[in-house]
Amino acid sequence: MRILTCPAHLQRLEAALRSSLPRALPVYGAVLNINRGNPGDFEVAVDAWPNFGAVLARRRGEAPLNDSYRNLCSAFYRDVGAYRALLESPGCLRWDSAFHIFGGYGENRGDKRLQDGVLTVSQDIALAKGVELEVTEYYTYLHPDPSTLPEPQLDPDVQLGTLSPAHVELLDSTWPYGGNVWSRRYLGELLRRFPHLCLQDPAGNLLGWVLSDGFAAGAHGYTVPAQRRRGLMRALTIMAARRAHGRGFPVYGHTATDNRAMQRLQEELGHRRLPGMCRFVLHNPTLARAAPGAPPGRNA
């Protein structure tokens, strides 16, 4: 295992990952952020350099063992054997901690390069180590040409606003994965470190918002129930996509398989659903549920 720190090597990695899009999307997004000031304090580990076979993008430093939000990694591999060797390398992962690894899609249906090893390698290692796993699947949507997006339309009484740390409790309470100390800290870090947008009424009340994360993906998006069916999420999605595209970032995100409204919206705007599933593999989920401040029975 090798941690890449040389700027020239990281630029070379960025170019290599770009040639492997869309399969390398999350890792590519993390490397883009690293090479543009590293606001998320990320790092990338490779099995070898320069002829790497696998890459893992993650936050630097150590986190509490039960903080599966900070312990979030994205993976891409060219060779599944190299990926397995990377994950088994001493010091690569704390297998006694709660952590996510995600990835999984390919370029077209029937593509043999679907990243299925993101799940199967974790399953094999977890079985040998007696580690429990929990897998959640998402659709991944990517816009092929954000320059074609229409102009956003907003009512005169709606204006762009700014999210602040004071909004973290509201963001957390409306997020299906929130409800504990670590989730609130994670959302607060997203606000401080990465682009986001919100809409407000003239009194400054929040109407809706979209966040982005350290992998350059769209993250928590929400419209206040009383304000739905006004086209607010449509406008936010367009504005966020245009800003990301203007910065040279891909426009993509992961959508829950049962979130038909968001799936329809993205398809109407020209986003393409990638083949395969993006799998978020949570290691040691029982430990993750022990996050401080988590209500009984609620997933952390």
Radius of gyration (Å): 19 Å
Helix content: 25-40%
The outline comes out as globular
How many β-strands, per DSSP?
A: 13
Q: How many angstroms does the end-to-end distance come to?
A: 30 Å
pLDDT under 50 segments (min length 5)? 295-300
Structure classification = alpha+beta
Task: Give the DSSP E fraction (strand runs of 2 or more residues).
Answer: 15-25%
Look at the structure and give the mean pLDDT.
Answer: 93
Number of helices: 9
For the biggest sheet, the summary is: 9 strands, mixed
Order of helices and strands: EHHEEEHEHEEHHEEEHEHEEH
Put the structure in a nutshell.
By secondary structure, this protein is an alpha+beta fold. It has helices at 7-18, 25-34, 80-88, 117-129, 168-173, 181-193, 232-246, 260-268, 285-288, and strands at residues 2-4, 42-46, 54-59, 72-77, 99-103, 133-142, 159-161, 196-200, 206-212, 218-223, 252-256, 272-273, 278-283. Helix 1 runs antiparallel to helix 2 and helix 3 (80-88) packs parallel to helix 4.
List keywords for this structure.
300 residues, 23% strand, four-stranded antiparallel beta sheet, 13 strands, disordered C terminus, alpha+beta, 30% helix, 9 helices, nine-stranded mixed beta sheet
How would you describe what is shown here?
This protein is of the alpha+beta class and 300 residues long. Helices cover 30% and strands 23% of the residues. The protein is built from 9 helices and 13 strands. The strands form 2 sheets. Strands 1, 2, 3, 4, 5, 6, 11, 12 and 13 form a 9-stranded mixed beta sheet that branches. Strands 7-8-9-10 form a 4-stranded antiparallel beta sheet, with helices on one face. α1 packs antiparallel against α2 and α3 (80-88) packs parallel to α4 (117-129). It is globular, with a radius of gyration of 19 Å.
